[in-house]
Amino acid sequence: MFVRISNPSRTRSLEQAVRILAITFLVSLTIPVNPVVARYVSSDSAPGANQALCLPGQLEQFNNSDCANLGPVGRLAELEAMGITFPAEPLPIVPTPADLGVIPFAYAIVSNENVPLYSSPENAQANNPGNSLPASNIKYVSLYQKVKTDQGTYYQIATYEWISGEYIKKVSVPTFRGFELRYNPDNAFGWVLETVSPRSSPAINAPPVNKTYYRYNVLPIYASQTIGDEEWVMVGVNEWLQKRYIARVLPGYTPPAGVSGDRWIEINLQEQVLTVYDSGKLVFATLISSGSPPFYTQPGVFQVYKMLVNDRMSGAFEADRSDYYYLEDVPYILYYDNLRALHGAYWNNYLGYRGSHGCVNLSVADAHWLYDWAREGDYVYVWDPTGKTPTDPALYGAGGF
User: Which helix (H) or strand (E) holds 76?
Assistant: First the structure.
């Protein structure tokens, strides 16, 4: 194997040539050509009789006429054009402070039967209820105090009434947190939603890559391709995931139509992600859960009109109130569209998927970050790139949790 140097003044020692050949050989082994994104090279691009191939790490030393940008160097250039470098550039993300998720409440889920409430522990012992929580499978209370009696343990809730411990089960608040960004990223990125192994090309029957990604892993996204009805995203060299396994952040730094000023919150209903922009910079990104049919989160441009540290949410949509819900001490609420709000959802373990009754659910830590950043009057831009979410305001009621 020989490397021809076109300019005699650039002749290297044998030792240097051997070292360069070794590097070239290793690169050609470790960077396989991706059949989907590889650049087609015509015969017109072949090196001339007096033209050598450019060598890895040496390209900047040559003029374009001195060497041919083909082979491993060409592949490296293609990858660099997509944002893939060796070594890889880390994403400019920083986890938010863990103490944002610390909250002065303990929560419990309430059984789905009709549950008696008592005005005092004494009335509880005497089985003299003064109120009740209607039958429903969506009831959560916050626990303020605990009293043990001969008849059992009772807890004081946010209404200052008491509930028997036999009707509740304590729950842990999910600890997921989004990211602040140190500067605008060069590429899109996203969170893995389920355990998945990538394929070597964008096809379900393509050979799998010996690698596994897990829920909440954060990956850069370099390219996308639609094969039939299936969209695929490229997360590494010869690593492709079906789009449904990842929720993407697709940065856009220009204020959307209808947004005045340089501060806005953006909600992408297709991706189930929320991003925050300030003065031309992407400053925060995280996963959400928006409304699921028929309780959509309404697309449009809105403004935050009320902010609450915590509040109770309850209501029903069906005439018979069979879908009644009751949620105590919902934290860090930003109302922006009637009763639709951005807020912490301590019951939500399915971020990245639709599942609310119209509100935008965030983790407690993320809602806290957003509450600290936001001001009344800030814009909230909600959109669905697929166009599948209804946009007729007549289809939307007041909204729900």
Answer: helix 71-81
Neighbour order of strands in the sheet with 273-278: 93-95, 179-181, 281-287, 273-278, 263-268, 379-383, 300-303
The count of structural domains within the chain is 4
The answer to whether 201 touches 36, Cβ cutoff 8 Å, is yes
Indicate if 44 and 117 belong to the same structural domain. no
Tell me the residue type at 303. Q
- Sign, CA torsion 266/271/272/273: negative
Contact 154, 137 (CB under 8 A): no
- Residue range 247-270, pLDDT digits in tens: 999 999 999 999 998 999 999 999
Yes or no: say if 331 and 359 are a contact pair by the CB < 8 Å rule. no
Give the residue from 113, 28, 23 showing the smallest Cα distance to 70: 28
393 preceded by cis ω (within 30°)? no
Q: Which residues span the domain enclosing 347?
A: 263-395
- State how far the Cα of 138 lies from the Cα of 147, in Å rounded to an integer: 25
Tens-place pLDDT, residues 95-119: 999 999 999 999 999 999 999 999 9
Residues 66 and 132 in one domain: no
Assess contact for 291 and 267: CB atoms under 8 A.
no
Token digits of residue 157: 């809730």
Q: What angle do CA 229, 234, 240 make, to 5 degrees?
A: 70
Whether the predicted model's global pTM rises above the 0.90 cut = no
Question: Do residue 305 and residue 371 come from a single domain?
Answer: yes
Where do we find the tokens 């986890």?
95
Half-sphere exposure of 361 (CA within 13 A, CB side): 23
User: Tens of pLDDT along 138-183?
Assistant: 999 999 999 999 889 999 999 999 999 999 999 999 999 999 999 9
SS3 string of 267-322? EECCCCEEEEEECCEEEEEEECECECCCCCCCCEEEECCEEEEEEEEEECCCCCCC
The closest alpha carbon to 116, from 107, 125, 108, belongs to 125
Question: Domain of 146: which CATH number?
Answer: 2.30.30
